[in-house]
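Feature request, filed as a ticket because there's no other form

It would be nice if the structure record came with a short human-readable summary line next to the tokens. Right now we just get the raw output. Example of a typical job, pasted below so the devs can see what we mean:
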Amino acid sequence: MRAFAAVARRRSFTQAAQELLITQPALSRTVGQLEAALGVRLLDRSSRGAALTDTGAEFLVHAERTLAAFDAALAAARHESALRLGFSWLLPDPWAQQSIARFERDTGARLELVRCDDPLVALDRQGVDVALVRGGKPVGGAVRTVHLYDERRVAVHAREEPAGGGREGSRGTPPQAVPDVVRWQDAPEWTLVVNTASGTTGPWCWPDGDGPHRYVETANFDEWLESVAAGRGLGVVPDVAERRIHHPALRFRPLTGAPPSPVRLVYRTETGTGSPLLRRFLDAALEAAVTCTHAGEA
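Raw output as currently delivered:
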């Protein structure tokens, strides 16, 4: 099951074998044995890699939950004390460092950092115990949220203005250059690149439909970053990216009139009521949020 999950995550037998430190033929045999035992095909194999079948995608959800529960049982049996924090990109600083230090000092436990494209999916599948979520996108069902503070948004675009850049003129005219200061009220003129999994700015920011006229969707932060760098459109991101991303093809601009972007911790309702470690981490996180220099920024 773990072998199948690795191939499903990597979409490649070669990369999954490297991750698991086994040979590719051995990995292929292991996955084949699982498929034979189940009597179904979980993966479509081709020269380009491996893709989940519909049955495989459904099985993966249950497999990841089972593996997470098994790992948790092992940790309990070994008396390991750890809490898993899921995040998608660029943990806020200095909040993260202060929160981790306080939590580990006060509890003697370890905070494990788990990078995932969509922390909420990882939380639902019990791959993490608590998720750091940016932006105001609805988080759904049986979860609770803790608001930490707000981040300021900035705009970002490609340094070289390709055809069809961040702002487009009327049909038949060349695109307008991105101004030195971008205005939120000009959103209808944008082609906005959106990270649908973990982005902070997307169609949900304009529930009345008065936002950008065109969206370019990407599946994770890295795709979003490189799509903006390739000139697919304008990006909007918390200002932590401006401080910590040094991409030669990107230029950041001030963004006026934009609402703040909230930073939240999200956890499963049933976990919060029975986990002393989670409660201690929430306390450390809130304390760090108050003392961070950028806490509460709009």
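Something like this underneath would help us a lot:
The longest helix spans residues 54-77.
The two ends are 45 Å apart (CA to CA).
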